[in-house]
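Human:
If only I could read backbone structure tokens as easily as an amino acid sequence. I am handing you a single protein, as its sequence and its fold in token form. I hope you can help me see how the letters and the tokens relate. Thank you; the sequence and its tokens follow:
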Amino acid sequence: MSPEHAPHILTITCPDTIGIVAEVAGFLRDEKCFIEESSHFGDADTGQFFMRTQFCYPEGGFSADSFSEAFAPIAANFSMQWSLHDTTAKPRVLIMVSKHDHCLNDLLYRYRTGTLDIEITAVVSNHEDLRELTEWHGIEFMHVPVAGDKPAAEAKLKAIFAGTRSDLIVLARYMQVLSDQICTELTGKIINIHHSFLPGFKGARPYHQAYERGVKLIGATAHYVTADLDEGPIIEQVVERVNHTHSADDLTAVGRDAEAITLARAVKYHVEHRVFLDGNRTVVFRQ
């Protein structure tokens, strides 16, 4: 589908007030746009308003420049931060991984089958273990060792991100802590996955710790990366019930499934422009 006929997505964040939805809908009507999907939310606590609208021009002839020029007065009137996204342009995603392959394998499968509409620019790892899996999918694998010189490794990572023109970094079980600097520079552009339990278990072998405590719920959390380790805005969570019949290996298998699906959903929501940052929280317009 050509950009002239393809759907576009308008995302808006602004102070909440009366008339925003009506003004935006009226503008799209006057522009002869067909609204395919629209979601909005006003946060009473922060006073912020969030809106995502997917629309198309049934007759074609869409011009992003003309649209932006016509919409600018409305955006200025409501003090909007807004973006227009072409759905034919695939987001460029850089994946980082260490040795565990379950999240990477799931993302590669979804990418190969087209259920995750992204362009994977490369897979970066601090180990060589997953080179064969990556290259089998026709994707470049980059080995960036960390041990001994972490600043140099991170400088190379930043160069790879810029050189591949990536839009997003996905930490698919990348077992290294990123510096505060890179977390700040790429705010809202790095997604991480980790296990989440009630109660919480930190350190090595978390599923074995859970087994020893006899947990009944295990799950996973996908979130944006911030300088506060594992405390960034949450995008998606999945919880699975387990019981006394599950061994430590069973819990590990259930947990890995949860991690894979949670990360895939978070990436999908992000690349479809469904996630809005709202302080340390997110607004997610799920389809």
Q: What stands out?
A: The helical segments are 20-30, 64-77, 102-113, 131-136, 150-163, 180-185, 206-213, 248-271. The longest helix spans residues 248-271.
